[in-house]
């Protein structure tokens, strides 16, 4: 009965879903990809996975999930040589990151959760196992995979404090879906207890750790930093401050902090990277209004370094990780405004010191580790606190070096989730082989 009601609701929202999806895509200058959304993958793309020794499908909704999946994708290549990897995304930015990573043999859009669309995709790809990153629960996708005998692994799962109550209230809906999953690898014991309380079978629940910690820790060499700065026309001898994954309401605060920095040290430079590149024109207008010289990444002409006291506005996708390596200090956005924050581990993997604001609900565990290992100062409570830390750290290279080492140490101490996930995946592949 629940399944019937869910599918009826899907059909009722279809007349709204299609124009909304078209508007979102076209307004952002992206293709709608309706054929893929409804299960039709072009034959020339399917040829990319033909002739292999089985396929593994990994679903990562957007940028954060895709980045978290990269260590797992690398591990799959090593542990299961010969397997073809397909990665699916919901967002264009997630797909762009997946394509640029070259970690998969084929990148596709995740289908709308209609049974016919899901079945068409799964019949085209015929995966031996499906991996769904984090807590992406799509009833028809999981149900059709189960009907087709394809094991589904929920990877890097987490249930936040805020969402746990909602899941519990709707456990009558989620319980039958969770019981169709073959295995669930949750990040922490608390997450494992919560997913079991919602309805997942305890025997299928594992504590796998957080894949986000399995990023390689690599500090850029001076010649590599020089190369990156030359590529992006960043002044070679400036203090470089990067504000990453910012949201509406944060750019104005970052510019205010940057103005204070320039008042003390005019030989500084800001990299400003909005979380959603389609917001770049509005951010550019804000920068003009504030009177800062700037250049958009897409308009760089290779003519030489931009001026000190200027700004590089990153309006492209997939380049932020490289720019972390050329930064002296990184502020991770989504945290001065109430959006839940973003992942500070990515800049930390470059041994660059990291700051973030008070709103880190989506990365509570990681933020707590940074506070524990690097001090409460890495999480200023407001704009004034951010200004104080920016001024303090910009003036103390040895402290920045120390905080960079401590941040990288968090990753080194917490690594190992990839191996645990691969062990569970291996058992699913073995069981599938016996069924075959």
- In whole angstroms, the N-to-C terminal distance is 31 Å
- Mean pLDDT score: 92
Q: Give the beta-strand count.
A: 13
Percent strand: 5-15%
CATH architecture call of the largest domain: 3-Layer(aba) Sandwich
Structural class by sheet pairing and helices: alpha/beta
Q: What Rg do the Cα atoms give?
A: 23 Å
State the share of residues found in helices, binned by percent.
Answer: 40-55%
Q: Write out the strand line-up for the largest beta sheet, numbering strands in chain order.
A: 3-2-1-4-5-6-7
CATH H-tier superfamily of the largest domain: 3-Deoxy-D-manno-octulosonic-acid transferase, N-terminal domain
Can you tell me the number of structural domains?
Answer: 2
Characterization of the model:
- The two termini are 31 Å apart.
- The radius of gyration is 23 Å and the shape is globular.
- The chain has helices at residues 2-27, 34-37, 43-46, 63-79, 92-101, 115-125, 139-147, 161-169, 171-178, 189-198, 222-231, 251-264, 280-290, 320-324, 345-348, 364-374, 383-394, 397-414, 417-435; strands at residues 55-59, 84-89, 106-109, 129-133, 152-157, 183-186, 205-207, 239-246, 268-274, 294-296, 311-313, 329-332, 354-356.
- The mean pLDDT is 92.
- By secondary structure, it is of the alpha/beta class.
- Strands 3-2-1-4-5-6-7 form a seven-stranded parallel sheet, sandwiched between helices. Strands 10-11-9-8-12-13 form a six-stranded parallel sheet.
- The protein contains 19 helices and 13 strands.
